[in-house]
Structure formats: structure tokens, C-alpha cells
Design goal:
152 residues, alpha+beta, Thiol Ester Dehydrase, Chain A, five-stranded antiparallel sheet
Length: 152
């Protein structure tokens, strides 16, 4: 659930690190559906038999599937400025896929609010350093600098 913050307290949240989101299990069905949507049917994603002989020993989620999960994870770490009527995805300045997410792995997201800037009156640009962690792995699945815009 998003935390509501007062407009005059926005600067207090720069550097704030969220609690991690809930764990989410990435299933083969989800990977297959993503492959169907993106037309990326590479064997390492959709063919469990062939993937067992591949470099990861099992099927893995698409990196972009893991990235797209940020919108789900954000429910656990997002902050909304009081009075915001529109929140939009503004893009990414950096995305790195560090560790493959094997099928049936559990992943979760966390964020640090790196910068919050009022670009125009009532338009706030938020820069989040986000990480998707894999349960039991030392290195995360991905790190990214995610930019969102909130309009009051």
C-alpha cells in the first residue's frame, strides 16, 4: 500500500530506503505468457527439457519480465504525494540484469528514493534506485534507476 506524504515534507524522503515488498514466485506459466506476449520464445525461457542442458540448468525468466514486475513490487514501497491525481512511469536511466531468475524462484523489490524534484509547479519527478532480490542469492536479479512523475 502506498504511503501518502505531505507536499512540504517531500525533501525529507530523499535517501529513504523502503522495506522490501512481499515475495513473489515466478512460475513457468508466467514465463510462458510473457514469452507469448513479447514473441521471445528462446528455449532458455520456454523449454524446460532443453534448458536443463543449457547454461542455467533450468528455464529462466526474461530480464524484461523481471523488470516489468517493478510495478507490482511498487505497491509495497511507493510513496504518493498528498493530492497527486496522476502518477506516470517516466522511464529508466539505468537498468542492469545481474543474476538470472530461475523458474519457481521467489523475488521481491525494494527502493531507495535517490531524488525528488519539483520540475514544474505541482509536477514532481521521483528517482528511485530499485533492486529486485532473489531469495537465497547473494546478487540481485536486477538494479535500476526508475523515474516516475507525480502530478498534483
Amino acid at each position: 500500500m502506498a504511503q501518502i506524504i505531505k507536499r512540504d515534507e517531500v525533501s525529507n524522503y530523499v535517501g529513504f530506503s523502503s522495506e522490501p515488498s512481499e515475495w513473489f514466485t515466478v512460475t513457468q506459466d508466467q514465463i510462458n505468457q510473457f514469452a507469448d506476449c513479447t514473441l521471445d520464445q528462446q528455449f532458455i525461457h520456454v523449454d524446460p527439457v532443453a534448458a536443463k542442458e543449457g547454461p542455467f540448468g533450468d528455464t529462466i525468466a526474461h530480464g524484461f519480465l523481471t523488470l516489468s514486475m517493478l510495478t507490482h513490487f511498487a505497491k509495497g514501497f511507493s510513496m504518493v504525494i498528498e493530492g497527486a491525481h496522476t502518477l506516470v512511469n517516466y522511464g529508466f536511466d539505468k537498468v542492469r540484469f545481474l543474476t538470472p531468475v530461475k523458474v519457481n524462484s521467489r523475488v521481491r523489490g525494494r527502493a531507495t528514493f535517490a531524488a525528488i524534484e519539483e520540475k514544474n509547479p505541482g509536477q514532481f519527478l521521483l528517482r528511485l534506485q530499485v533492486t529486485v532480490e532473489i531469495e537465497g542469492e547473494d546478487k540481485p536479479a536486477l538494479i535500476a534507476e526508475w523515474i516516475t512523475m507525480q502530478m498534483l
